[in-house]
Amino acid sequence: MDGITDTPLLQVSGLTMQFGDNIVLEDVSFDVRGGEVVSVIGPSGAGKSTLLRCINGLQPFRKGTIRVGDIEFHGGKRLSREEQHRMNLIRRRVGMVFQHFNLFPHMTVLANVMEAPIHVLDRPHKQVEAQARELLQRVGLEGYEDSFPISLSGGQKQRVAIVRALAMDPEIMLFDEVTSALDPELVGEVLGVMTDLAAKGMTMLVVTHEMGFAREVSSRVLFMADGGILEQNDSARFFSEPHTERAKVFIEQVLH
Amino acid sequence: MELSFLIRESGFLLHGMLITTGLTLGALGIGTLLAALLAVLRLGGNKFIAHIAGGYVEFMRGTPLLVQLFIIYFGLSPFFARVTAIEMTPLVAGILGLGLNAGAYISEIFRGAIQSIPAGQMEAARSLGMSSALAMRRIVWPQALRHAVPALGSSFAALIKDTSLVMVIGVPELLLATKQRVSATYEPMQLYLLAGMFYFALTALVTYAVRKWENQYRWTV
């Protein structure tokens, strides 16, 4: 594929996360190179969402390292101030889109998008507004700038959420089952925006149940089960010739 | 009930009403600021501080306001005067007592409102790179305040009525002013009814203002 860099943009190594005695992620390691679109698939309870939440520092973890560009974050029982600061820097570079949108209900669509660039990056208001309007237009939301989230459909909300993350100019975007809460007829418009982003060269890590997206849009698939990565392969090859029995059964179940 | 009597007495009570208004506003200022601080401390990361704040709230809610006013005016005020050589007037003691008491109640309203905001809001804010303080100020707090408005209205109205208690430490507010007029005129029924109407006017004003405040929100959750 074009535009994919050799150096990894995101490196996860030895990531282990547990709730009490319940191990949710065990020694997970993988890379995502710049420009790559990687789908994370697998049965529910495999730890897919937890993995994304760890990468974005929303879920503390005891062991392992997350590296985004030149910033490295080490998990641990107690985080030093410096470590917390590094996680904040990572968050600024990593965009996240949630299953349930999590738009700010007290702000208009435009204000949702402008909030972080202005208050986190201290960018000038004019420049941020111009960029926000352009991004909204790109995802077909021109005319909704002054609407409040409550008045939008699920698909529109999710497109705003994607734009809100993009407004921070992230180096990589994380998508956490972003179409799972949508009515079936609205899934397409959100996947369309994501496909567009992928085509423009955005680096993406996508937890999804949309096998069509995993197969057609993403270049690589991570198959997770029981808190670990069981298999990773080119998308086409993963679906045509899975190696493990778990993956075979999973593909059977979701495709038939 | 003679109209000329009511007009004349209203003039006397008006001064008490002004003091009642002052007591309310002062206590409201102290109480709201204290409440926001207490709510943040109780929800904050430091367990020890959270416990102290929680203990304060429990004490203020678990003892009569009248007892608290006595402690402040007859207990703390002389002590304060000995240490600083500044005499605490009954009015200052009254505002302080009402404010410290209201703060405990209002902090519970704030705490409940903050907790009612879904965790996803804080997570979305953090994922955009906001610090937890910034996320609190820009994202969680404005939404929580909206949830809190109706309960704040009841709390403010209760505070107005509670100001009548500070007559016991000699603040010449509405009720004490009325009592003095009763002694002078021997017309308890008319005067206390009049005082009731003055209080009702104040609480009605607050209720109206809070409803206006509620209606100015253009967004719903």
What percentage of amino acids of chain A are in beta strands? 25-35%
SSE run of chain A: EEEHEEHEHHHEHEHEEHH
Helix-strand pattern of chain B: HHHHHHHH
- The overall average pLDDT of chain A, rounded, is 93
CATH-defined architecture of the domain at 22-174 in chain B: Orthogonal Bundle
Structure notes:
The complex is a heterodimer of chains A (256) and B (221). By secondary structure, chain A is of the alpha/beta class. Chain A has helices at residues 48-55, 81-93, 109-119, 125-138, 154-166, 184-199, 211-216, 235-240, 245-255, and strands at residues 8-19, 22-33, 37-41, 63-68, 71-74, 94-97, 172-176, 203-207, 220-225, 228-234. In chain A, the strands form two sheets. Chain A has a six-stranded mixed β-sheet, sandwiched between helices. The longest helix of chain A has 16 residues, at 184-199. The mean pLDDT of chain A is 93. In chain B, helix 5 (119-127) runs antiparallel to helix 6. The longest helix of chain B is centred in the N-terminal third of the chain and has 41 residues, at 3-43. The mean pLDDT of chain B is 93. Chain A binds chain B through residues 56-58, 88, 91-92, 94-96, 98, 100, 102-107, 115-116, 119-121, 148-150, 161, 164-165, 168, and chain B through 118, 120-121, 123-131, 134, 138-139, 142-143, 146, 218-221.
Descriptors for this entry?
heterodimer, A: 256 residues, alpha/beta, six-stranded mixed sheet, four-stranded antiparallel sheet, 38% helix, globular, B: 221 residues, mainly alpha, MetI-like fold
